[in-house]
Each structure stands twice: as C-alpha cells, then as structure tokens.
Amino acid sequence: MVTTEKQSFLFYLRSAFLQPRIETSLFAFSVFIFFAAAMTGAAYYSYQNYGFAPDLELQALRQANRLKSGGWFEDALTEYRASAAIQPGNRETLYSMALTSGATGDADTAAWALQELVRYYPDDPTANHLLGKLYMHVNRRGLAIEYFERAAPKLSGIQAVEAYTDLAKAYELSGRPELAAENRRKAAELRARR
Predict the structure, then answer these.
(1) Of 103, 104, 96, the residue nearest 127 (C-alpha)
(2) DSSP label of 121
(3) Does residue 90 contact residue 57 with C-beta atoms inside 8 Å?
(4) pTM for the complete prediction?
(5) How far is CA 152 from CA 1, 144, 173, in A?
(6) Residue 61 to residues 68, 85, 188: CA-CA distances in angstroms?
(7) What CATH fold (topology level) applies to the domain 122-194?
(8) Residue 28 in contact with residue 9, Cβ under 8 Å?
(9) Distance in angstroms (rounded) separating the CA atoms of residues 19 and 27
(10) How would residue 147 be classed by pLDDT, with cut points 50, 70 and 90?
C-alpha cells in the first residue's frame, strides 16, 4: 500500500493547525505536545535504564548485591552479568559473580568469572587460588596445579596454608608424591608460624 501525503499523520497535523476554528488548532497543538512529551519521557527512560547513565554498572552491582543478600541468587547473577557487560574487568563484580555462581552450583559461570579475573589481574593470588580449586573440583589437575603454583607463594597466613595444602593434594592425585610431600611441609611450616 502506497502512502500519499494526504494519508500521512503530518498532513492531518498540518491541516489541523491551519483550521479556521481555534478549537481544532488547539486540539492539534495539544496532540502534538502529548506526543513530544511521550517521546521525551521514553528517551529519558532509555537514558536511565539502558546504558547512558554514567554509574549504570554501579547500579547493577548494587542491585545484584541486594538480590544476593535476599537469597535471590539467580536474579543476582543476571545483574552481575549486566554489570560485567557494562564494565568488563570490574574486580568486585567478577568476584561476586564467581562466588554466587559457585554457591548455586553454576561451575561454568564461576569459571568464566574467575578466568576473567585472572585475565585482567594475573597477579591476583586469590583469583588464581579459587580458579585452581574450581579446576580441582572438575578433575583438571594440571590446570589446578598451575593456578595453585601461581597463588601459593603470594598468599599469606591461613590462605597460604590452604593454597599449599591444595597444591599438595593436586600433586598427590596427579601421582607426584615427592612434590606433594614438599608442599605439605611448606603448609606445616606456615601453620607453625601462626
């Protein structure tokens, strides 16, 4: 169907403004103002809710944290994903996403978040240790050993004891008892210093 100028909204709007009766012109003007206000409202809503607000990632992160504390883990993960999409590499978002998805049993999302953490922060010992634990959980001992070895020397206190213990267990399950014994010894030394 071909639309002619006489069938268009613009034609009716223009003809309404040019009417000799003031009531018709005022009605047309009020319709125009209504549509202009509706479009402005829609634009403002989009601005606030779809990525134009400068602190949108913080809003998504706060909402995710509220949902998580209320026990709405799946909804919290959705908000963490939104926050991570808006600002990739946000440490707090990625840690929260990894821990929440780990708590819900979503190993894929936990692995993705931890891998992103290690990609953006390769020297972060906690992220390396958690990624090692995840790989141990899914029986990928070679990768677990790699991440435990990155993490253990950089950690301190009880975290270091736990990392060396995890590394010893990974070596033992990989059939390398001499390295397992060495890491158990390191864990015992650190435990004795505490």
Answers:
(1) 96
(2) -
(3) yes
(4) 0.64
(5) 72, 12, 18
(6) 10, 11, 39
(7) 1.25.40
(8) no
(9) 11
(10) very high
Confidence at 70, pLDDT banded by 50, 70, 90: confident
- Return the domain boundaries, the chain: 9-49, 54-121, 122-194
Amino acid in position 144: A
Judge whether 143 and 135 are in contact, CB under 8 Å. Answer: yes
* Paired tokens of 45: 């809503």
Q: Which two tokens stand for residue 23?
A: 């009531």
Query: Are 77 and 106 within 8 A, CB to CB?
Result: yes
pLDDT digits (tens, 9 = 90+) for 81-135: 877 887 788 888 888 888 888 878 888 888 888 899 999 998 889 899 988 988 8
Return the higher-pLDDT residue of 177 and 23: 177
Span 54-121: which CATH code?
1.25.40.10
Domain 122-194 in the same topology as domain 54-121: yes
Residue whose structure tokens are 């602190």: 55
pLDDT mean across residues, the chain: 78
Identify the residue whose tokens are 């125009």: 32
Both tokens of 61, joined, read 């992160």
C-alpha span between 97 and 187 (Å, rounded): 29
Q: Which residue has the tokens 């978002």?
A: 93
